[in-house]
Amino acid sequence: MIREIGYELLKMGSHKKSYIPVAGYILFLALCYIAFKNSTHSLAGMLGGFELDRANAAKYLDGFFFARILLVPTFIILMPIVMAALGGDCVAGEIQDGSLKLYMSRPRSRTRVILSKFCAIYAAGVIYTIIFSCTGLLLGVLLFGMGPIQILLVPGQVFGATVAVMSSSEALLRYFTTAFYFSFSLMTMGALALFFSTLFNRMSSAAIAVITVYFVSYIIVSLPFGEWLRPWLISEIMNNAFLFWLTPVPMGKLIVNLATLGLYICSFLTAAVITFNCKDIR
Asked: Which of 76, 87, 250, 275 measures 20 to 30 Å from 201, CA to CA?
């Protein structure tokens, strides 16, 4: 299995399109830097509401604050598209260019092939996560420095918490924990894309299908009947990494989220295995 996973990763690395996300991330960096520089004054005003004067509040807008802001577009917009493309290309892309038929001409377990592709997608997602999270943090510290104390802004509707104060070392641990939560939750997209990839014979069709499911789930939340569905929607559960920034961390809610993500991943992966075993490869 390890050899097959390495082979799949080698194939991903040999494609030029695998480096497009890096170019997209560089663009995100530039846009977030511009937005951060232009909104520092207003952000200081927001922090000033927590018994800080504007001058002292501005001291907390350091490189770590910038890196945390960068996590949002990276793992909610960029990485879901990346996982959809990786998963969609694993089967449908190889059918499209004819390499899968040649690969399956020798006696191979189709279940083993799908599992190796799934593991390779996860490994690639972890690699992207490490690159993006470390690059954002390093660039932020180089550009804006890093203070000993961090003020964390948390969505006000979550358990009534709006702000938390912690040391930079504790915040750093939570930062990387959040990033790796995203790397696991994004495998929901990877498993779903792999399933669609076994249904379609074109990579673009599989990728578009899973991206559509992801962004439509955001729309469902705003509909009248969407509120009771919200806790179980893919987009909602995938992006609940903010729980790591609460003090204390709500472990019960976190365990429910991880269990639900695991159920989604296992369901989509099982569907992909069944579909691929029944598929006529041409």
From this structure: 76
Q: What is the DSSP string of 98-123?
A: THHHHHTTS---HHHHHHHHHHHHHH
**Do 5 and 120 meet the contact criterion of CB atoms below 8 Å apart?**
yes
How confident is the model at residue 11, as a pLDDT? 80
Distance, CA of 178 to CA of 175 (rounded, Å): 5
What pLDDT does residue 161 have?
44
What's the token pair of residue 69?
């802001």
**Token pair for residue 43?**
């952000």
Identify which of 82, 83, 101, 79 has the alpha carbon closest to the alpha carbon of residue 201. Answer: 101
Give this prediction's pTM.
0.84
CA distance 140 to 132: 12
Residue 259 tokens, joined: 């269990």
Burial 154-180 (b: 16+ CB within 10 A, else e): beeeeeebeebebeeeebbebbeebbe
Condensed to tens digits (0 to 9), the pLDDT of residues 184-231 reads 999 999 999 999 999 988 888 888 999 998 888 888 877 777 677 777
Rounded CA-CA distance 95/109 in Å is 17
- Is 168 in contact with 64 (CB distance < 8 Å)? yes
The distance of Cα 91 from the centroid of its chain, to the nearest Å, equals: 21
